[in-house]
Design goal:
With 972 residues, the chain is an alpha/beta fold. Strands 15, 16, 17, 18, 19, 20, 23 and 24 form an eight-stranded mixed beta sheet that branches. Strands 6-7-8-3-9-10 form a six-stranded mixed beta sheet, sandwiched between helices. The protein has a four-stranded antiparallel beta sheet with strand order 2-1-4-5, with helices on one face. The two termini are 35 Å apart.
């Protein structure tokens, strides 16, 4: 079973070599109680350690079950100690911070036994030694005899073949010694027990065999096995097959010991709990660096969140704008700068002109570009990445939002606002320019603006203080400022204050007149503001067809009243107030409307009669009836103005003749009841007479006079459109007297007259001063697929750069004529701020990281101290089969625990410190910065703390793993 052949053990001490064993050869039976006696220093414990695999022999061989150990590796010795050897020491060698049960279970843990089986076998072993009721006690709560019984139970729990006892009764009283020896004797019936002792009486009484050593040699053996002759190990007759080798390898792997990390954590946790104060102080010291970095990150995160909010809010007001017609402002500015420098290539004795204006105009013409927004819109709509990069993509159109309010005094135009023009502050041209600047994120004159189509962003920027957000196209919201106030400009523009009181006030003030302005603070309830109603009127409704052309009726008060009354009603359904933490707002006006109001208006304009007529006649101006100028007719006009005049006169003469000879006058007279009129062409005499009788023509003098007079001043187009409101009572009476046939004749006559007038104008030889595109723009005509401008609202500056990349990709994929020019109004306004904040944070973190490294080194030193303190524990673990790697794992687990506690403690303290920090920031500044540690940053910092302490503990754990288990067991 176990055989020692010529075992020698030498120790090198300085320059000399000491021989502890000098050729010891012993064979042991499978079950016997062997006592090894001898004076101190004779080699008894050395021999025991070599048999137990704790120490290595210098020469000779140790055979286990016929197998030589000469080629054993560390893992083989670890497995041998764990599965074949059980140690019982004089000083018990129990791990003090583990319970009795945990001490016994430890060997099974290294063997890979399951938890349930481990518990069952450990309890059984303790019951076998009479300690079944002491499972959860700590070693320091037990007597010496009880601790030795625990040591025996630990030695037996793994069912070893050999039990090695080194002075097992050396620290016990006589009575307890007898109990322990009786226990060992009973065990020797099934196992080999080798005991080293100085007590020959106990050896003689309980041992079945006594071996005496002196000066490293066996001098006596009371019951040798075959006179200490060891039979040579026979070699197998044939070489082992691959299957045999594979099976042997599998068996070795099965017997390989390994401590899992959870066991290592448990051992280290229990050890640290015995030194709570030191562990806590060590963790706090390690947490100082974490606290510093966490606080820097919290403030940096607060600033970054504020910057992100500012970016989001700012970019919601200053989007990337792409207009249909654009110019490169940068090139124009460069030209101005060059002109400012001058050429200087002339003598200095005279004054010379500088061609600045000419160069600027040339540059403007060269740099002005028409963007194909229809094609670009389709590209944007098809781009799936754009949604994540933008708060909204807003398409604006040339269709004017005409908003009116009704009152007893009449109708008032609310949008576009004319208040400043009425005050005499600026001209209509300046007003238009200012409105354009408002659409570009500036402060325009209009108080109505389209809301961004991003409810989440609006919720962040605004609080709904009354009502709700609009849900339909005909619903709007009123926006107040952070103090619940509305600018009086808005009140005048919306008609809440009388704007007529400001008419010409600027001119009068500049003329020196005494003027007064209402400075009283007016108060409105939420309900009053939510009761506001407005009317939206499409631009085509401002025009009325007369004599074949469309006339602008905005100057006709009664017509405008009716047009406004027939307009779409708009209701205020909510009142918004900017959030106190919002740095900017996406709604530039006081009234915010939804995008679908504009799409509704576009549909109304596109389906209007005047727009349809202009589209059907693209070469005729519907406002004048004249032809638009083209390259061909302009050339004809330039070739002979006299011919044009003659042609015009001739056309007018022919037109007059045509009118005189037409049936129009006959039909007019017939409608008026004039019996002297000839029968119109296409009507029989019987039809004519019946019609005359129907009209009372037998006595027609008075009726004819009334009819002709009535028709002379009658608004024929009103009749044609069915509008009788503008007729006098006499005209209404006359119309009522007409039969159905006469009414049809009248409408036919009006159509012929309108067509004749239009034909006369179109062929008059004169040309319209406008063109087709201008007319369509005047009417507010737009196509949804072809916007007038595109406003792209990036989520942040990083997203803005990606959007610019998308635009660049588009430009690379299209021809030169379809490339897009855009305007970035924000530019690099704030992008550098983030870089500066990050740079400052990195510098501060670098400084604080020094303290983190220092604290990690300190933890490494403390871990090394722990190694020194736990040296005996290292020896105990090695004696029950723990490998060097297991020992390293134990101390690595300890550093992991300390690092985790340090990191968690640092994060908790940092979270608590952010409370007074935020209070101080709020007290010292008005900037809404809230220091907060991101959850991800907290987790990363704890991980960094664990990693750094783990790295710092690598050296001490390595030292622990390399400790000689024999020396470690001797350490007190």
């Amino acid at each position: 079973m176990l055989s020692l052949k010529d075992i020698k053990k030498d120790y090198v001490v300085g320059d000399s070599t000491v021989s502890a064993l000098k050729g010891v050869s012993i064979d042991f039976r499978e079950n016997e109680f062997v006592s090894i006696l001898g004076p101190s220093g004779c080699g008894k414990t050395t021999l025991l350690n070599i048999i137990g695999g704790l120490d290595r022999y210098t020469s000779g061989d140790l055979n286990i079950n016929g197998k030589s150990t000469k080629d054993f590796k560390d893992c083989d010795w670890d497995s041998y100690r764990n599965h074949s050897i059980g140690f019982v020491f004089q000083s018990y060698n129990l791990i003090p911070h583990q319970t009795v049960l945990s001490n016994v279970e430890l060997a099974l843990t290294l063997s890979g036994v399951s938890k349930s089986e481990r518990r069952e076998r450990a309890v059984k072993a303790l019951e076998q030694v009479g300690l079944g009721d002491q499972l959860h006690k700590k070693p320091n709560q037990m007597s010496g005899g009880q601790m030795q019984r625990v040591a025996i139970a630990r030695a037996l729990v793994n069912e070893p073949d050999i039990l090695l006892a080194d002075e097992p009764t050396g620290a016990l009283d006589t009575e307890t010694s007898v109990q322990i020896m009786e226990l060992l004797k009973s065990i020797s019936k099934d196992k080999l027990i080798i005991m080293v002792t100085h007590n020959p009486e106990l050896a003689m009484k309980y041992s079945s065999r006594i071996i005496k050593l002196l000066d490293g040699k066996v001098i006596d053996d009371s019951d040798p096995l075959d006179k200490n002759v060891v039979e040579p190990i026979k070699k197998p007759e044939k070489e082992p097959t691959k299957a045999d080798k594979k099976a042997a390898k599998k068996e070795r792997k099965k017997l390989k010991t390994s401590m899992n990390f959870l066991t290592a954590l448990s051992l280290s946790r229990n050890n640290l709990m015995t030194k709570k104060a030191r562990t806590l102080l060590t963790s706090f010291a390690g947490s100082i660096g974490i606290i510093g970095i966490a606080l820097i990150l919290s403030i940096s995160n607060g600033v970054q969140l504020y910057i992100d909010q500012v970016q989001s809010d700012t970019l919601s007001s200053y989007p990337l704008q792409i207009t249909k017609t654009t110019a490169s402002i940068g090139e124009i500015m460069n030209t101005m700068a060059k002109n400012h420098e001058g050429s200087g290539k002339h003598d200095m004795d005279k004054v010379y002109s500088q061609n600045a204006m000419g160069e600027m105009i040339n540059t403007l013409m060269e740099e002005t570009k028409v963007n194909n927004l229809e094609k670009f819109k389709k590209y944007l709509d098809d781009n799936s990445d754009l949604k994540d990069l933008t708060s909204d993509v807003q398409y604006t159109y040339a269709t004017t939002l005409n908003v009116f309010t009704e009152s007893d005094s009449g109708v008032m135009q609310v949008n576009p606002s004319t208040l400043l023009e009425d005050m005499g502050y600026m001209s209509s041209t300046q007003m238009e320019a200012m409105s354009m600047s408002g659409s570009m994120g500036g402060m325009g004159t209009d108080v109505w603006s389209e809301m961004i189509d991003n409810e989440e962003l609006i919720d962040k920027q605004y609080d709904v203080i009354a009502g709700r957000l609009p849900e339909k196209y005909n619903e709007v919201v009123l926006v107040v400022d952070k103090n619940n106030e509305i600018n009086d400009y808005v009140l005048y523009s919306l008609g809440l204050l009388d704007p007529s009181s400001l008419n010409g006030i600027v001119r009068r003030a500049m003329a020196g007149e005494d003027i007064s302005v209402d400075s009283e603070q007016h108060v409105y309830t939420y309900d009053e503001l939510l009761d506001l109603k407005f009317k939206v009127v499409p631009t085509p409704d401002f025009y009325k067809k007369k004599d074949g052309v469309w006339e602008d009726m905005t100057g006709d008060e009664s017509y405008m009243k009716k047009a406004v009354a027939n307009g779409t009603e708009i209701s205020v359904v909510g009142i918004l107030r900017p959030d106190e933490d919002a740095s900017s707002a996406s709604i530039s006006g006081a009234i915010g409307y939804r995008h679908d109001l504009m799409t509704y208006l576009i549909d109304e304009v596109d389906n209007s009669e005047i727009v349809k007529e202009q589209i059907a006649n693209p070469d005729i101006d519907v406002f004048t009836g004249l032809k638009f100028k083209t390259d061909e007719n302009v050339a004809d006009t330039d070739s002979s103005s006299e011919t044009v005049s003659d042609s015009t006169a001739d056309t007018e003469s022919k037109a007059d003749k045509t009118v005189d000879n037409s049936d129009t006058d006959k039909k007019a007279g017939l409608v008026a009841g004039d019996s002297s009129m000839e029968i119109p062409e296409g009507m029989t005499e019987e039809q004519y007479k019946a019609l005359m009788e129907q009209s009372g023509a037998s006595d027609t003098g008075e009726l004819a006079d009334m009819g002709m007079n009535a028709m002379g001043s009658m608004d024929m187009s009103a009749i044609q459109g069915g509008d009788m409101s503008s007729l006098t009572e006499t005209q209404k009476k006359y119309i009522a007297s007409l039969s159905d046939e006469q009414m049809e004749l009248m409408k036919q006559m009006l159509k012929e007259q309108s067509d004749t007038n239009a034909d006369q104008l179109a062929n008059s030889g004169k040309y319209s001063t406008s063109n087709y595109d201008n007319n369509m723009k005047t009417l507010g005509y737009s196509v949804v697929e072809d916007p007038d401008s595109i406003n792209i609202y990036p989520v942040d500056f990083a997203s803005k750069e990606k959007i610019i990349d998308i635009i660049d990709d588009y430009n690379d994929s299209v021809g030169e004529e379809d490339k897009i020019e855009y305007t970035d109004y924000v530019g690099l306004m704030m992008s550098s701020i983030t870089s500066i904040i990050n740079a400052i944070s990195y510098v501060l973190i670098a400084f604080v990281a020094i303290s983190l490294v220092v604290s990690s080194i300190m933890i490494g030193i403390i871990t090394y101290i722990s190694v020194l303190e736990r040296t005996k524990e290292i020896g105990i673990l090695r004696s029950i089969g723990a490998s060097k790697r297991d020992i390293s794992r134990v101390f690595n687990a300890e550093t992991v625990i300390v690092g985790f506690v340090a990191g968690a403690l640092g994060i908790i303290i940092s979270y608590l410190l952010t409370i007074p920090i935020n209070m101080i920031i709020a007290h010292l500044t008005d900037v809404p910065i809230r220091a907060s540690i991101p959850v991800s940053a907290a987790v990363i910092l704890i991980a960094i703390s664990v990693c750094l302490t783990l790295i710092a503990g690598l050296f001490p754990s390595r030292v622990a793993a390399k400790k000689d288990p024999v020396i470690a067991l001797r350490t007190e």
